[in-house]
Design a protein that fits this description.
The complex is a heterotrimer of chains A (about 110), B (about 90) and C (about 300). Chain A is mostly helical and about 110 residues long. Chain A is built from 3 helices and 2 strands. Chain A is about 80% helix and about 5% strand. A two-stranded antiparallel sheet of chain A has the order 1-2. Chain C has about 300 residues and is mostly helical. Chain C is built from 12 helices and no strands. Chain C is globular. The chains are: A mainly alpha (about 110), B mainly alpha (about 90), C mainly alpha (about 300).
């Protein structure tokens, strides 16, 4: 009974995570300029990663594997937003301006 | 479920490569490579579960580290010598 | 940078072919350190290549022929995973059957690499060491004056406050993880090469964010040079010690009363040597390239 519920939960997490990363990737492919693409990638990435790793953790149960997954999760949660931030900042420094109303405004 | 997840991650990786090849600016390419790297971490973790080989998690951890470091490195060097037009890679 | 993707991709291949250790190395070297060194080399050589006016037809033809020959060669190879391939009929079977009882460590790759084939691995370590010596000779002998003095070295990336703070948090974790990989190599994937590369990557991250001068103050190049030589020496020294116990060079069975324990000690020793050499080598190469690039920028 309990195992069933855990399985169901982990499946739900995995599927939701898969859906989120795909939507993020579609955004990265189709959005018009760099900053919107960054938005699509950065926002979905943290939640999707959390969900997928959480699903795997539920599958693994209490063990060293779960601990390692937790480490990976923490690491990605720390580095991914920082990388996004640094990248956007570098882009702004590099004189790349966001699109406003479909055109580049200085 | 795991297989569906792995397939989704693979699709995303393909999309990231497309963006890296298309990407009009350097930053788009870096963004795509970053996305690719994170997805690789996830893919390795999921595949590790599919094959029942939890050793793979160590590799995923190394990827998470290395991905971050290489993004920082790439950023540093493109901010450093941006003086030229900064076109193709 | 696309080479980085290539590294990730090939590592994924290795993962799917169950070669965990190879994937590990590829992950650390191919995806991490290689693009970094490539980029530093690019800053040294300058962005623009002189465009050649000659169409290199002959070279193209040569490449085509070589590629065709290689593909022909692969046709001759046994089918993937077939049991009578040469790789499976020779010594591999013996390694796989006897490794658990003779050496008693779960990771077979480590036992083959560090015990049965210890001499080959010694050669690899010496190759790494030689590479460092070559890079140092080429880059530091050109002009010693060009190296920037620490006082006026430009501190790059001062603006990235968040990046710096987070990296400060992460670097100790990375170093810790490198040590884990180093000493866990007998049980899981890992070992000296990978640990050395991860360790070096952490130091390189520090050097990139806080400036080369600070990193060189924290870990001095002279000490690194000593360490690189010391790692090779440690490896060879373990061999000499086992020589003195009355068995072959790099045969660790008599390092302790029990041959299995002796092999453990021997493998730990040489893995440590490998790790030290690789880490010192990587950091030294990075220092050399980055210092040279900074010196060039200052001279201009």
């Amino acid at each position: 009974m309990l195992a069933n519920i855990v399985n169901l939960l982990s499946s739900a997490c995995l599927l939701l995570g898969a859906f989120l990363i795909i939507s993020g990737a579609v955004g990265v492919l189709r959005f018009p300029d760099f900053f919107t693409r960054m938005h699509a990638a950065g926002v979905t990435e943290t939640l999707a990663t959390t969900l997928i790793l959480l699903g795997l953790m539920l599958l693994a149960g209490w063990s060293i594997i779960s601990f390692k997954l937790l480490l990976i999760l923490l690491f990605i949660l720390i580095t991914s937003p920082v990388a996004s931030h640094a990248l956007t900042k570098a882009a702004l420094h590099g004189k790349l301006w966001p699109l406003v109303d479909g055109k580049n405004e200085q | 479920m795991l297989i569906a997840c792995a397939v989704a991650i693979l699709v995303v990786m393909v999309m990231a490569i497309v963006r890296a090849l298309l990407g009009p600016t350097i930053y788009d390419r870096i963004l795509a490579v970053n996305l690719f790297g994170t997805k690789t971490v996830l893919l390795i973790a999921v595949i590790g579960f599919l094959f029942g080989r939890p050793d793979f998690l160590d590799i995923a951890l190394v990827y998470a580290l290395i991905n971050f470091i290489s993004i920082v490195g790439v950023l540093r060097y493109f901010e450093y010598n941006r003086s030229e037009e900064g076109g193709s890679l | 940078m696309l080479a980085g993707i290539y590294g990730l991709l090939s590592a994924s291949f290795f993962v799917s072919m169950d070669a965990v250790d190879v994937a590990f190395t590829e992950a650390a070297v191919g995806a991490g350190v290689f693009p970094l060194l490539m980029l530093t080399a690019l800053t040294v050589t300058g962005r623009f290549e002189q465009t050649a006016h000659r169409r290199p037809r002959a070279a193209f033809f040569l490449v085509l022929v070589t590629g065709a020959l290689m593909i022909l060669g692969t046709l001759d190879m046994p089918a993937f995973g077939s049991p009578d391939a040469p790789a499976h009929t020779h010594v591999a079977a013996r390694y796989i059957q006897l490794s658990p009882t003779e050496i008693g460590i779960p990771n077979m790759v480590t036992s083959v690499l560090a015990d049965y084939r210890a001499f080959d691995t010694l050669g690899e370590v010496v190759v790494v060491f030689t590479a460092v010596v070559g890079v140092l000779i080429l880059l530091t002998s050109v002009d010693q004056r060009q190296r920037p003095s620490p006082a006026n070295a430009v501190e790059t990336m001062r603006g990235h406050m968040i990046l710096r703070v987070v990296s400060k948090m992460l670097i100790p974790l990375i170093l810790l993880f490198a040590l884990y990989v180093q000493f866990h190599g007998e049980y899981g994937p890992g070992g000296g090469f990978q640990a050395g590369v991860i360790f070096a990557a952490a130091i390189i991250l520090y050097a990139m964010l806080f400036g080369l001068a600070k990193a060189e103050a924290a870990i001095k190049p002279s000490i690194l040079r000593l360490l690189a030589a010391f790692g090779v020496l440690l490896y060879g020294g373990v061999g000499v010690v086992s020589f003195l116990t009355g068995v072959n060079y790099l045969d660790y069975s008599r390092l302790a009363a029990d041959p299995v324990t002796g092999r453990h000690i021997g493998i730990l020793g040489i893995e440590l040597g490998v790790g030290i050499t690789v880490a010192a080598a990587m950091i030294l190469i990075f220092y050399a390239f980055a210092g040279y690039a900074a010196g060039r920028a200052e001279a201009e």
